[in-house]
Each structure stands twice: as structure tokens, then as C-alpha cells.
């Protein structure tokens, strides 16, 4: 790829920092005043604020979105296979494996690239321990289709902060997310206080505010320092998501007549985490955009059933045709809350000029 400097990036955390500086500065000062850096008042306050913002009773902060999935699966005390989408970040599968479970995969809906829940239902067997549906690109899956399935469901909401969801779910605060920290972070939300208690034990070495490992735990705690920033960003989330949706709609309208690209279908309640289109000659288009200082991404270039690490799912090329085809065609264009209309229009103009 051309090393030309990027003028229009995929994300812009610097702008979020500038807008919220007095708030995170105050939280940081308070953190230093108390010299409490692990599981202190900032994390406790953020957990309450995040739970309320997500419409849940409890939130439990952990060290990453991957850990949120792992810790939640461990708290469910299941054994066997975990069914998830073939089109997601590799970390969904990595996190399932880290819980000592075997990831297996379902295909996706070709219009949205969300997990095909009819296909998922068909793949439920006696060894299925749990299902991990993924609200990919900020688009909420309608989980009604899984009603009656007798296995626990843990939602991967790592890309869907603020989307209208309920039930047990895992979030990531990776810096580029709709709600991003300045490093790794994650959280699990639930309405079940007993499950929340287990989650708190597991993330803290199995301890119960003592020095005894009561259950098999790990060390995965959200840092106080990240909570300072997340608390400052959280009140902006709804406005940022609104702006993201506006931009996604502007892209949809502007690209509707462009022959070379086809935007994915938009789902009600989307928080537009990524703007993904199918593109003819995708890799050449990326090169062209890069030559004009425009960042792009591929989310994701290989469906998970074709990753060497997940070979034991026993699936091969051709098994999940919609995910495999999409992986060859998709490209993510710049989309973040601080993207200007002018920059978006320039991206569109460059896409058009390529074709
Ligand atoms: C869909 C999805 N699942 C899981 C993860 C893992 O989150 P993290 O990077 O915070 O471990 C991510 C983010 O990378 C993601 O986008």
C-alpha cells in the first residue's frame, strides 16, 4: 500500500479527547489524589454509568472485549462447542477458545453480513454449549429467531455500543470503537446480579475482596485510568452514534448510483460502527484511496472457519459461501463521529473517480 500520509483516517480519538478534556482531566486528578489504580472508584462509577446507558442492571469492567467474552462464557459454566458467526473479528473465536471451548461457525446473511440465525439454528447439536451472535458493524441482530433454543446466549456487542439490545453481552473499548478507551478495555453487562457476582470473581483471580481464590479466575480488570476517559466519553456516545448514522445515510445516498460499489443493507437501531460496502476490484480501490490519503480497511478478509487456529471446527472452503464471498469483496470506508461532510464527500468523489 502507498505510504502517503493519511488525511482522512478511519477513526479520530484525538478529537474526542479535545472535546472532553476538562472532564477526563478532573477524573484523572481525582484518581491520582486517591492513588487508587486498580478496581477503585473510577471503575465502580463507570460500571454504574455504563450499565445505565446500556439499559442493564449491572456492568463488569474487564481488560478487553475478548476477555469480556471469555469471562462471560466461563461464568456460564458451559462445556462443548460455541456457535458464532464466521464473519467477525478473529478475537471472537480466540476468546471462545480461551474459555476452553471449541468455536464453530454459521454463515451470514448476504445483505447485512450479520450471522444468519436460521443457519445457526440448524447447526445447533447436542454438543452446542452456547451461541455467540455478533452485532457486527454496529447493526443489531434480531435475536427473536433464537427464541426457544435451549442453550445460553452471549452477545458479542463489541461493535454495538448504544444499539438497542438486551440480555447478556460483551463490549470492547478498543480505541476505534464507538466508545473507545486509550488502550484495551471491555465490559460485560447483565440484568442478573448473581451472574454479575460470578463475573466479578472470575475477573479478579477468583477472589471475593479477599486473598482467596474461591473459583478459577483470571486477572482481567478494567484499569482506573481507562475508566477516567470512558466516563468522560460516555455522555457523548448517543450524539456520536447519531452523527455516525447521519454519515452512513449520506454515504448510502451518495453511493447509490455508483456502479462499482454496493453498500450493505442498513438495520433498524444501527449505531453505524463501520461503513462497509461490497466493491468491484476491491484491492485496487484501496490502493487508489490510499494514494489520495484516504484510509480504508477490510473487516474481515478471511472468515473464521478458514483460519488455521480454528481448523478443529472441521469446516472447509465452500462450507459458508456467503461469508467467503463477502470476505473477498468488502471494504470499510472512513466513518467516525468527527468525520466532516466535506471529507465524506471527498471519499465518495474518489470512489467514483476510481470507477
Ligand atoms: C466483533 C468483535 N468481537 C471481539 C472483539 C475483541 O475486542 P478487544 O479487541 O477489545 O479484545 C472485537 C474488537 O476487536 C470485535 O470487533
What does this protein structure show overall?
The structure is a single chain. By secondary structure, the protein is an alpha/beta fold. The protein folds into 2 domains: 14-235, Type I PLP-dependent aspartate aminotransferase-like (Major domain) (Aspartate Aminotransferase, domain 2); 236-354, Aspartate Aminotransferase, domain 1 (Alpha-Beta Complex), CATH 3.90.1150.10. The protein is 38% helix and 12% strand. It has 11 helices and 10 strands. The protein has helices at 13-34, 41-53, 65-76, 90-98, 117-123, 193-203, 224-233, 237-255, 282-291, 321-329, 341-354; strands at residues 58-62, 81-85, 102-106, 128-132, 155-156, 169-172, 186-190, 261-263, 275-279, 330-333. Helix 4 (90-98) links the parallel strand 2 and strand 3. The chain is globular. Pyridoxal-5'-phosphate binds next to helix 3 and helix 4.
